[in-house]
Amino acid sequence: MPTLSEYSNVSNTAFNILDKKGYQIWYDDEVDLYCAEKNGWDFMAYSPCALLGLISIYEFKNPTTWEEYWWRDNEKDLLDNLSKKKPEFISVMRRNK
């Protein structure tokens, strides 16, 4: 069991984080997506955690103007070369026992 994973009981926490960051959040039932907006930058995702993840990309990249593919980071091809071997580590859940 991981320390945290995406599950429905995490959704309200994701929304509270977005709210505290100043985003307007809503659900668009026409397209069946969760939405957020702040300062004209708008985001849509299939889950509250995914919405928070997209906004994390935005906040990390910190664009000042919109341009196509502003969110891309192709420094490394991690998607196609992602390791299938779990690294060795001790989960904090096990360390605290």
Give the gist of this structure.
By secondary structure, the chain is an alpha+beta fold.
Q: Which key phrases capture this entry?
A:
3 strands; alpha+beta; 3-stranded antiparallel β-sheet
Can you count the helices?
Answer: 3
Strand content: 15-25%
Summarize the biggest pleated sheet.
Answer: 3 strands, antiparallel
The radius of gyration over CA amounts to 17 Å
Task: Provide the helix percentage.
Answer: 25-40%
Provide mean pLDDT, rounded. Answer: 94
Distance between the termini: 15 Å
- The assigned structural class equals alpha+beta
Shape descriptor = globular
- Strand arrangement within the widest β-sheet reads 1-2-3
Low-confidence stretches: none
Strand tally is 3
Order of helices and strands: HEEEHH
Provide the number of structural domains: 1
Describe it for me?
- The protein is of the alpha+beta class and 97 residues long.
- It has one domain (8-96).
- Helix content is 29%, strand content 16%.
- It is built from three helices and three strands.
- Strands 1-2-3 form a three-stranded antiparallel β-sheet, covered by helices on one side.
- Helix 1 (11-20) runs parallel beside helix 2 (48-61).
- The longest helix has 14 residues, at 48-61.
- The chain starts with 10 loop residues before the first helix and ends with a helix.
- The model has no long low-confidence stretch (mean pLDDT 94).
Q: How do the strands and helices of this protein lay out in sequence?
A:
Blueprint (H helix, E strand, L loop, with lengths): L10 H10 L3 E5 L4 E6 L2 E5 L2 H14 L30 H4 L2
Antiparallel strand pairs: 1-2, 2-3
